[in-house]
Design a protein that fits this description.
There is one protein chain. Helix content is 20%, strand content 32%. It contains 2 helices and 7 strands. β1 and β2 form a beta hairpin.
């Protein structure tokens, strides 16, 4: 794919070869030996520091272990990430007991202050304590 257009966004750097073509795959920047060492180090950390049932465990409906919040926080600490949570949207209807939140999580590297990752999620809840209405049975959780 030939392109004479050169672009740059906040954190996007185009990869190109000598013929000024945009290449979609980056070069490997870590050797195979270093990659294996890092994986082994992470596996040792999981075996020696992470607690099964607290940091990771099985979740109903899935056959493989899942990383749980305490384990994710340990990994953020060991990798040197600062975690921030910002509520970007909220609905709080106290009269009907309906609450909804959209939260953006950001991981920032402590060593240089750069944003490593961001994620956006939401949660919706209906709290019957604040409502005089009866709950209609449903197969899906609120």
């Amino acid at each position: 794919m030939k392109s004479s257009m050169h672009f740059q966004s906040d954190n996007i750097v185009p990869f190109s070869n000598h013929e000024s073509e945009i290449v979609s795959l980056p070069n490997i920047v870590v050797s195979t030996i270093e990659s294996k060492r890092r994986v082994q180090e992470l596996q040792t950390f999981v075996e020696e520091v992470m607690v099964k049932g607290v940091d990771y465990g099985l979740v109903d409906g899935f056959s493989k272990p899942t990383l749980l919040k305490p384990g994710a926080e340990k990994l953020c600490d060991v990798f040197g990430f600062l975690k921030t949570a910002d509520v970007v949207n909220r609905i709080e209807q106290w009269e009907s007991g309906i609450f909804a939140y959209e939260v953006k999580m950001t991981l920032i590297r402590k060593d240089n202050g750069l944003v490593e990752a961001e994620g956006l999620d939401h949660a919706i809840a209906r709290n019957l304590l604040f409502s005089n209405k009866t709950l209609i049975q449903s197969s899906t959780p609120y």
